[in-house]
Amino acid sequence: MAYTPELLAEKKRIEQHVKIGSEALYLTKAECMENGPTVEDTIAAVRKTFIAHGKKEYEMPAKIGVHPHDDVFYHAMPAYVPGQMAMGCKWIECYPRNPKDWGLPQTSSVLVLNELITGYPMAIMDGAWVTAMRTPAVTAVAAEALCPDAESFGMFGCGVQGQGHVRFIVKTLKKLKKIYIYDSYAPMMDKLIENVGAEVPSHIQLIKAADPKEVVDNCEALCSATKITRETYNIVRKDWIRPGQTIFPMDLNSFWEASIQRDAHKYIVDSIDEHELFASMGYFPEGLPHIVCETGEIIAGLKEGRTSKDEIIVCSNIGISVFDMAVAKLIFDRALENGAGRILPL
What we know:
Helices cover 36% and strands 22% of the residues. By secondary structure, the protein is α/β, with parallel strands linked by helices. An eight-stranded parallel sheet has the order 9-8-7-10-11-14-12-13, with helices on both faces. The protein has a seven-stranded mixed sheet with strand order 2-3-4-5-6-1-15. Helix 6 links the parallel strand 7 and strand 8 (178-182). Helix 5 (128-146) crosses helix 12 (321-338). The protein is globular.
């Protein structure tokens, strides 16, 4: 390994705050939020990381995990992004029954960042807020590439991710005039408007839909962030979909009739390896659709995205750890600058 001047300078900078090898900085969720990047900075970091991913300038094995219950997964998500000097691992679980049974979010996570020269942990932080920031940024950057002229955007699911997507999408789809939202639990739509409505520019209408079909009928770009299950529960039907729509399922195959993804003109994914892994776990019971390319290849200009206004495109970005590490590194750097968190002995 070459100890480049950049790596040595980075280690020296970090050691002004944390003694590498004997200490690590611990950041709670609240501290991550207080020291996190802005929406615009997060989008910029994700766009840069997408380009690195498209050019294969990263190291990231597919998720590995354990499954203590049939409907549950725990995943280890390691990644190394050289261009952002970010390396670490996120440990995340998904319990779809948590909200109903225990009043808790379906996912929680812990993230560890490692120092590049020695490999020692330099930060331990909540991973849930990192996930909450990088996920809608991924959709926003992908939408910017695949449907930049969209005037309408539909959001299924109004929880943390739904709220995040509304906040982020207005930054990249510059021609938006209407955002339709829908949640099977109606109060969540009011919650979304309460929490992020003020961040939607005044010229964009934020509309509560009466049912899912109203969203599909009125929107050029569609996104779902609902529960993740192996079985497809077919909320959106294929015969509702029309030419020219762009679909961003953040919940694998769960929400949409399987034939929508299978018969789309283009099925694009953030990671082929990880989609194949999920398929091997039973999450695409009707078979994984034919994959045209990875999203990062389009962002990097290596592959074509939309080539016709009538194409139906599905872009499935299920979450890859290169984005987690990039955003976590931004949080870590700002926490050091602000003197946030607490030092833990190793």
